[in-house]
Design goal:
Layout: E1 2-6, E2 12-19, E3 32-38, E4 43-48, H1 51-54, H2 57-77, E5 89-93, E6 100-104, E7 109-110, H3 120-139, E8 142-144, E9 152-155, E10 158-161, E11 167-169, H4 185-189, H5 196-212, H6 229-235, H7 249-256, H8 258-267, H9 274-291, H10 343-350
Antiparallel strand pairs: 1-2, 2-3, 3-4, 4-6, 5-6, 7-9, 8-11, 9-10
Helix pairs in contact: 3-5, 3-7, 7-8
Length: 371
Amino acid sequence: MEFGFVSPQGDTHRVRARFGPDRPRLVRPPAMARPVRFEDGWQGFQVRLPAEAAADRTAYTLLEAEITAALALHRAYAGTRFGRLFPTPVGHDMNTPAPFILYAVPRGRPLSGPTERVSLGDQRVVERDLVLAVRLMEEVGLVHRGIVPGAVRWDAHGVQVWDLGSVVRAGRPRVPYGVPPFASPEQRAGVGAADPRDALWSVAQVMHQLVTGRPGSPDGPPPDLTAHRSIADTLGPLFARRAQDRPVPDALLRSLVPEVAAEVAGVLLPDPLEQFRREFDDTRRRKHATLAPSPPVHGPRLPDAGRTGDGRGFDAGSGTPSYPDAPPAGSTGYEYRPRPDRSRLRTWISGGRASGTTGPEQGRPEGDSRR
């Protein structure tokens, strides 16, 4: 089939392409991902919203945020060795019935806790790359609120951080978002302003689960922290309940790998066009807001007046998740209308497989583009 997209440089392209089957565990629902092959042989992945999900204002906004973040990171780090830490955007189009972004093929597999059996050397590589990714995002004014095992891919070359739809501008008011233990207490409560140290809490929680095979505490240091010195010695301060009590990304990176921190400082030169890029992004965002489809009539049920939530985590005023202390039981942090198969949401967070998965796709790497 033929379809069009806009490249990161702003050029419009029309190509003939073939699409493979959806890979439901590659991205956070309700987004879908599928391999794509152009007629010239290039292969990548398309992350898209199905037409029925595109009418959901929340889902549409998350995809728009993903495109904005992917382009910002690409502009800042493409051509440097740091670009490998993030998905490589190839094109996008929000003005279609099923809006999408195209990426190069993702690397590796999601971190999946105890099944990885990582060595201490591998642990240090994952730890370094995650802290480095948070530091690089901080430099361009971004905070990743969705660092969970399913969003972190890893291979012999290191880490690649996905789910860029969970990225927001640093300093924006927090809204209740994420699931314990990976989202910080302040992030889940939606108090204060988004801070890069929110993402460092998530890094510590992902590393704890990777090493121990168990989730940590949602409200502070895990009870078994002292028994795992490889985490406690390097990441212990990141389990502080308040962001202000955690180290900033630059200080943490300097303590872990000072030579990499120095290299980062040399790469992060001022961009003379940054002001104009931000103005362009703001204009595009306003344009898309006027073109975005209206929310569907079957959207999430809001609570009656006077209630703080509807039992599924929605705030009475805005319809956004509202978790004063912790999400309700069974919550995923992304409360869309219930769907027949809830296993996609559970397996995305953990990076694992749905119970009972069988068939020829079982055991195939998530990023494998073969069909």
